[in-house]
Amino acid sequence: MTTQRRKRGELRRNPLNGDWTVLAPERGERPHGTTGPCPFCPGPGEDTPPETWRLRDPDRDEWRVRSVPNRYPLSERHEVLIESPRHDWDFRTATDDEAEAVLLAWQWRHLALREHSAQVVVFRNHGAQAGRSRAHPHSQLVGLPVLAPSARRGLELSRAYYRAGGRRYLDDQLDIALEAETRLVLISPHCVAFTPFAPVVAFETRFVPRLARADFAAATRTEIADVARSLRRVLQALDDELGDPAYNLVVETAPTGWERAAFLSWSIRILPRLEITAGLELATGIPVVTTTPEHAASVLRDRIGARLRA
Ligand SMILES: [Zn+2]
Questions:
Q1: Residue 26 per-residue DSSP state
Q2: How far is the CA of 144 from the centre of ligand 1 (A)?
Q3: C-alpha distances out from residue 38 to 33, 66, 68, 90, 97, Å
């Protein structure tokens, strides 16, 4: 039995297929209620481990985004990125500058954590159904000491795809979405959002940069600003259509050491949590999705269009 002990989370490996599981019993003790002052809000009730990084607000004498170690870590390098001093802040109601600051923070902290990790995962859980335990807006970065099987598989498949046709998989997916138009959600100067041909959940949306790069942290400021604005518009559309649904947002980017791989492209996925995973999915790993990506894209396009006209 392979085990790898860490300070908090413990990695255990399934002896048959080699898949990893993180055991983090301390996380079961995480507070889920809203009793007491919010530890992430600035003021006398603020209570976090010592800050690892902050982005200052140029206009005011305070921070705009800050990162702290997670009190209930999944690995030795697990940070919480507090996205705003405001408790009621959210992407969909944010200004473009505020949304951009969060994406820039993801880039900075990704760079900082990757030095000692095989892979850094950036994600945001929105809503209790998506696993969020604190109401204050935040995202998380986890540096893993090993490459997740899905990341390893992604590397192998992307490389094989590139070798076979000389093109990145996501570049082709982008072209197909642009050509057919039925799964397009939004076109922007530096990125395109579309629903995938075979989504894993209803309303799954993927943001792909027009200029493919393996490494999310290498995207330029202009690109990041455009992606942030696009993300905000799609999250607004999801809210308009579904009433503030719970979702997981994941930044997919190159594992450490693969930042310059020609066959990889970073992207951002939004995975709404509208349905509960049931027996068939758990038994087979095959998702059952009740909304077609064509329908989801058309509905989101309409919602974005309606806001632009308003
Ligand atoms: Zn708060």
A1: G
A2: 28
A3: 10, 15, 15, 16, 24
Over its length of 310 residues, how does the chain's per-residue pLDDT go in tens digits?
444 444 567 888 888 877 778 788 777 666 665 568 899 999 988 999 999 999 998 888 789 999 999 988 888 899 999 999 999 999 999 999 999 999 999 999 999 999 889 999 999 999 988 888 889 999 999 999 989 888 999 999 999 999 999 999 999 999 999 999 999 999 999 999 999 999 999 999 999 999 999 999 999 999 999 999 999 999 999 999 999 999 999 999 999 999 999 999 999 999 999 988 778 888 888 888 989 999 999 999 999 999 989 8
Fold assignment, 149-309: HIT family, subunit A (3.30.428)
Q: Measured in angstroms, how far is the CA atom of residue 253 from the centroid of ligand 1?
A: 29
Q: 63 alpha carbon to ligand 1 midpoint, in Å? A: 14
The yes/no answer on whether domain 3-22+38-144 falls in CATH 3.40.50.10610 is no
Strand partners, 122: 141, 251
Cα(65) to centroid of ligand 1, in Å? 13
- Compute the distance from residue 271 Cα to the ligand 1 centre, in Å: 24
Distance 275 CA to ligand 1 centre (A): 28
* pTM for this entry: 0.91
> Measured between alpha carbons, how far is 151 from 253 in angstroms, rounded to an integer?
9
* Spacing, Cα 89 to ligand 1 middle (Å): 9
Q: How many angstroms does the Cα of residue 82 sit away from the middle of ligand 1?
A: 9
Cβ pair 234, 304 in contact under 8 A:
yes
Distance (Å) from CA 39 to ligand 1 centroid: 6
Q: Please, how many CA atoms are within 13 Å of residue 17, restricted to the half-sphere of its CB? A: 6
CATH 3.30.428.10 domain locations along the chain: 3-22+38-144, 149-309
45 C-alpha to ligand 1 centroid (Å): 9
Contact 174, 196 (CB under 8 A): no
